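Researcher: Hi, I'm a grad student and pretty new to this. My advisor asked me to get structures for two proteins we've been looking at. I'm not sure of the right format, so I'll just paste the first sequence and hope you can take it from there.
Model: That works fine. Here's the first sequence with its structure tokens right after it:
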Amino acid sequence: MAQKVLIVYAHQSPCSFSAGAKDAAVEVLKAKGCEVTVSDLYDMKFKATATAEDIIGEVKNAEHFRYAQETKLAWEEGRLSSDITEEQRKVTEADLIIFQFPMYWFSVPAIMKGWIDRVLTPGFAYSQEKRYSQGMFKDKKAMLSFTTGSHEPMFSANGIHGDINVSLWPLQNGILHYCGFQVLAPQIFWAPSSQTPEARKSMLDDWCTRLDKLMGEEPLSFPPLDYFDEKHFQLKPDVAEKFVSQEFGPALGVHLGKPLPHNSQVKAGV
């Protein structure tokens, strides 16, 4: 059976480098026999705001509207708006999701954040019991593929923007891993707008080379859910003890006051 790939794409211009990266992914993955679907968020005019309009029919508590609780109930009852359910169908069918975007303010564009807020609803994408390593999508892969406006040294431990690994932790751990995805290392295109045409072509060539073997890549490493107690979700004492003599803690975000592990958010196996 052909593997299915969903590309969630956010850029306003078909002439952009992001569009080129998206098109390259479609071409290479289709050539490998994958079924590729693209959600072009700007072309779709995807609604970014999470509101009561996302629910068909009356909400449970209109006076004190709480989006997460209301959308969880609506998902259970089949009352989410059609644009959300269509994207959830694509997620359900996908073996791999690639998020293709230009980095805005150290994160994703608002329209993509709206996709995350509205599509990855409680019940569908996570629950108290099913998250992180035991998450809903633990049999699926996901990755970020994005451009930056700055060169790589500016996103280093000594750079003015700070360590790119720190920037990526909320997106890769707090969203993708939280929902259970096996997170592949990000594809980062450093400042393509400042590069020569030859350098931009080389970037896309490297991306195509990676795409050829993408589905077999080792995912990034995150602490499994059973590292933490079930009451306060703190690292279990016996687990913490194992890291006392080690240079680094279990993860960039769960560092135990130790130095941050190098490149744990950009390379697998480090």
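Researcher: Oh nice, that was easy. Here's the second one.
Model: And its structure:
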Amino acid sequence: MEKMNAWLRISIEDLGLSNRHTDCSFIIQTATERRVFLCHKLIFCCASEAFDRMLYGDFKESTTGEVMLKDVEPDIFEKFRGYLYGYQSEKLEDYGTDTLIKLCVFGNKFLVESIKEDCVKEMTNRRCRLGMSDLMLLFQCAHTLNIKSITKRVVSKISPFLKEPFNQSVVFDFDREVFKSYIETIDMKLLEADRFILIETYLKHNGLDTPSAAVAAPTAIDAIEEEIQENNREYISQLLGLIKFRRFTPKQFYEGPGKSSLLTTQQKYEHLYTIANECARAKDVVKSTSVETLATASLISELTSFPYYRAAHCHCRSTHFPFSADLSE
């Protein structure tokens, strides 16, 4: 049986390499390149139901034998095609994280579960060390595929080093939902002042921080523009809703949200009032209770949640990201 399996795999691989008996073609069209890949319908329909319906169903592709794809790079499709003609997951070990993610996303789109699972396994279990850029790409991929286990593992690897938000520039190219998920995930792993900086910088980077988009009434002259502005305002509101302003020190609030156009004057006053109450409560706790009593009563955790304590102690660790982080542990 093993000999038969080995023979069958080699035969199918040879079939893909020689292009003998091909009966369909995939045309990969990008802005700068156009490539045609000769393929076999049977191989692709066995890979997923999506290809089966496309190549043997009531669609134009089943009649013409030509499939036009514009949302995949030719190099990625070539690797995808090579995987289908043999299912050798070992080949994935030679690909970079960016390539694995693209293969995973493409396979997920066309319901090819095998390549999706093999790519996820390779990305999470490989023994190599992933740099910050690769980790962020992996976070984006995990969010797209709704794989929460990978999301948590990525954040667990970078959380000890989340000190300088501007070192996370790769997140500024995330789409809206991925960025929002990232801000939610790093809650309590980064100072609120730094999370706010990330949000404000992301909005500026993507042209969403205009006063009209943030706080003013819509001034668009047509319904489409007005809808866009409304969507922007709603998104900004959702992001700001993730920030716990009571964790700010007065100075942090003044230098960040206090000077930002993302908040109205009324909102700033309300948040400052909350911060003042938090600081007053923290001082009352310190005055009325000794450190020894706090420790005995297990109240140290409450004290450390106050903003002035966090500001004084949260930056005692390294403020630099490592060049890489091991995801496999």
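Researcher: Is there anything I should tell my advisor about the second?
Model: You could mention this: The mean pLDDT is 79.
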